Amino acid sequence: MDKFVIEGGHPLSGSVTVSGAKNAALPLMAATLLQPGRYRLNRVPRLRDTATFAQVLEVTGATVSRDGDSLIIDTENCANPEAPYELVRQMRASFYVLGPLLARFGRCRVSLPGGCNWGPRPVDLHLKVLQALGADIELDGGYIVASGQLHGADFTFPITSVGATGNALMAAATADGVTVLRNAAREPEIVALGEFLQQLGAHIEGLGSPTITLTGVQQLSAADATIIPDRIEAGTFLIAGALAGEKVTVSGLDPEHLTAHLQLLEQAGVALEVGTDAITLSRPGQLRPTDMTTAPYPGYPTDLQAQWMALMTQASGSSLIRDEVYQDRFAHLPELLRLGARITLHENAATVVGPAALIGAPVMSTDIRAAAAIVLAALAAEGTSEVLRVYHIDRGHEAIEKKLAGLGAVIERVDDRGGRE
Ligand code: UD1
To answer: What is the pTM (predicted TM-score) of this model?
Structure first.
C-alpha cells in the first residue's frame, strides 16, 4: 500500500491543469450500456474508480480499452445484466448500471453497495424512481433484482440525489411515454450525462433545472463524448494555492461550475483572476474565517467540505462548517487534529479556530476527499507528514502528487515496504 511523504512549508507557484471529472465519467460510462455500439469517451481520468467501473462494464460483456486519455467502450455483445458485490462494494457509483441495464435488458441483478465511511448512504431513491417507471424490484441475497418494461412517470424526489437522478435519466430515455423528474439534481455532471443521452438520441428538456422532462424514444445510437473538467479537483487545487501558494494558476476548468466555491474564496480574502478556462489566485495576507454550509448544486459542494476545513485552519478566527448533504462526513477531522488543527464537532457542524500552527505527523486517509484535505493540511504544516492509505486519493485524484510537485510541493509516493516510485 502506498503512502505520501510530504515536507510542508514549501510555497507553491506555477500552473496546474485539471483532469476530466470522475463523477461525470462514471455515469457516461454507464450510459454506454443502454445501446449496443462502440463509444469513445475522451478525457477520462486515470483513476482507480474509472478502472473499477471498466471492470463493472466488462462483467456485463462489454470491452473497454484505453487510447491515451480516451476510453473505447464496445457494448455490442453485452449479455450479462449483472453487477457483482466484489465490485459494487468497492465503489458505490457502480450502482449507476442499474438504470441502463434494466432499460436495455428488461431485467438486471445489481448488488447493494453496503456501508460507507460517510454514514448509511441509502439507495432507496434509485429504487423508488425506477418503481415509478414500472420496475418490479426485489432483494435477493444482497442483490437488487429489477425487472419490467419501463414507462413514463411523474416523479418527485423527496430529496435531491445526484445518483438517483442519473439512474432515472438513463432508465427513462427509452421508456414508453413522458417522464417528468421533479426536484432533480442540477449538478454539472448530471447535465453532462443528460447532454450525452441527447447525443445518443434521447429527448430531454430542462437539464440544469429542478424539473427534467424526457420523452422516451425507441432507439438510441452510439456516440462519442468528452468528459467535462473536474470541478472538485479544480476547487482542491485552488485551496492548495490559497493555503500554500504564492501565485497559482489552475487551468482547464469551467469557472461557471465553481461559482459557490469562488464566492467563498473571495469572502475568505483570496484574490482571484477568473478567465474563461483558468483561474489565477494570489495568496492573501491573512485568511478571513468564513462559514460554509454544503448544499446540492448550485450550493457549496460536500465534496469540497473537507478541503475547506483544511483551509479554515489557517484563517484568523472561528469558522463554522456545516454539512447538510452528508451529516456524518467528518472522518478527516481527527486526522486534521493530529496535525495540530483546532476543531470541535457538534452534530453535523464543525467549528474551526485558526490560525493553527500545523506540525507534520503520520496521518491516515479515509476517503477520497478527506484524503485530499489531509494532503492540503500537510502542505501547510511545518515538517514532514506521512499520509497513509493513499489508495483513497487514487480513487478520485489523477496523479495528485505529480501535479502538486509541479507546483513546487515536496511530496513523494512511497510504497509501505520502503520503495520509492
Ligand atoms: C454523488 C457524488 C458524490 C457527492 C454526492 C453529493 C458521484 C459518483 N458521487 O454521490 O461525490 O458527494 O453526489 O454531491 O457522482 N440519498 C438517499 N437515498 C438515495 C440516494 C441518496 O437518502 O437513494 C441521500 C444521501 O444519503 C445524501 C443525499 O441523498 O444525503 C445526496 O446523495 P446523492 O446526491 O445521491 O449522492 P451520490 O449520487 O451517491
So the answer is: 0.97
**Looking at the domain assignment, is residue 267 inside a domain?**
yes
Q: Where do the DSSP E strands lie in 157-241?
A: 178-182, 203-205, 212-215, 225-226
The pLDDT assigned to 415 comes to: 87
Check pocket membership of 93 for ligand 1, CB cut-off 6 A: yes
Centre of ligand 1 from the C-alpha of residue 23, in Å: 11
CA 163 to ligand 1 center in whole angstroms: 6
153 plus 299 within the same structural domain: no
Contact in structure between 130 and 155 (CB atoms under 8 Å): no
Q: Is residue 420 part of a domain?
A: no
On whether both 26 and 15 belong to a single domain, the answer is no
pLDDT at 118: 59
Task: Give the pLDDT confidence of 32-60 residue by residue, as tens digits.
Answer: 999 999 999 999 999 999 999 999 999 99
Do residues 92 and 213 share a domain? Answer: yes
Q: N- to C-terminal Cα distance for the chain?
A: 12
The confidence score (pLDDT) of residue 115 equals 63
Q: Are 170 and 133 in contact (CB under 8 A)?
A: no
**Do residues 80 and 209 both lie within one domain?**
yes
Last residue of a domain, one of 172, 204, 226: 226
Q: Residue 355: give the domain boundaries.
A: 3-19+229-414
CA of 378 from ligand 1 middle (Å) equals 28
219 and 246 belong to one structural domain: no
Closest residue to atom 25 of ligand 1, CA basis = 121
| 285 pLDDT tier (thresholds 50, 70, 90) | confident
Phi, then psi, of 409 in degrees rounded to 5: -70, 150
The residue contributing the CA closest to ligand 1 atom 7 is 23
Number of domains, the chain: 2
Separation of CA 390 from chain center:
16
For the Cβ of 119 lying below 6 angstroms from any atom of ligand 1, the answer is no
